[in-house]
Specification:
single chain; 2-enoyl-CoA Hydratase, Chain A, domain 1; elongated; OB fold (Dihydrolipoamide Acetyltransferase, E2P); 5-stranded mixed beta barrel; alpha/beta; 6-stranded parallel sheet
Amino acid sequence: MRRILGLTLVALFLMSGLATLAQAREGPVMVIEVRGIINPLTAQYLDRALRLARQRTARLMVLLLDTPGGLDSATRDMVQALLESHIPTVVYVAPRGARATSAGLFITLAADVAAMAPATHIGAAHPVPLGQDISEVMDEKATSDAAALVRSVATTRGRNAEWAERAVRENLSVTADEALEQNVIDLIAEDLDDLLLQLDGREVSTSSGPVVLRTEGAPVERRPMNVVERFMHIISDPNIAYLLLASGSLLLIAELADPGLSLPGIASVVCFILAFMALGSLPVNWAGVVLLGVAVIFFVVGLLTDTEAIVTVAGLVPFVLGSLILFSPFTVSPPAAPDLRVNLWLIGVMAAVILTFSLVVLRAILAATRLPPKSGAQRLVGRRGVARTDLSPGGQVRVELEDWSAVAIGDSIQAGEPVQVVGISGVRLQVTKVDPESSAK
């Protein structure tokens, strides 16, 4: 009975596995796409797609890749996700003209199948120091760490580990044809249809064991980034993040020129929030952020004093320096990181805009706010009139041929005595008695 029961359980287990395999073969081919810098958003996107692929019992997941590199932590997360995936994975460097450099090399090598389109290239993963010269010891440490990672990934997938290590140590890059010839990738495909056709019948080794791909004529299900992921990925571009930071500073200056949390103040807060969200996905040199803050202080001091030209122009020095080193941390760049920097033309344009806005537009706004009001009761402050009734303290006065309710400040005032408006209290004027001789003058 025990043997019968054991055989029954084994049979049920095998039938369940066969049913799952059959279901997987009927699942869709899921396609996702990563363009641009590798950051935490792309790592989360890949993780979400892999979980969804497993829920959908997808027979394969294809990652279309075109990247110059990205953050080391995000790259390692993506490599780990691909190595541990139960769903067969393909990284396809496409379309023509695309690249998989720095982080892209690590991610491509980590897939079950590495493919490239014609006229694409891969490699260039040597760590580059950003912002300063570093010692040979530090450079060797970073290089050795990167080389060990790429060698282990290539070895795990049965690819050319020697070339992968050279791509890190010697910063090598190769075309798609050269990569195929040197066993860096598995195949070259003209497009997605050609890729699926070539993959049909190929056996790959996933973390769950070997799987034979059945992709010819398979339904294709594209899963792009959702709206939030796409938006965050866009603002994580160094130029966009810098533009948000500079725009927030400009709007802050506009708000300080006319305080009151008006539209510029609200817009400034929004820009700063988005900018710091974007900076969280980029290698930031916080000294650059501090310099930009110092520049804003210079601009505000120049705006609110009589030295606006000198101080504002002086503020351009920390502004430009902060802009130049904003994405140049004083450390060795990780092997997955691209050479990130703000476009020099954008820095020049923003410096010119802030200078013009501070010296011309905001100065005109500030001057207008200091002019005496030309309507309403406020325009009467400083003007003289005569008491129509006794003010002890309340009564009426006539100022500029208009009768107003008024309240005497200090001594009481008799009807017919000259008065001067010194303030406004609600809808009543605040007045003081004027010496008759001074009034006559």
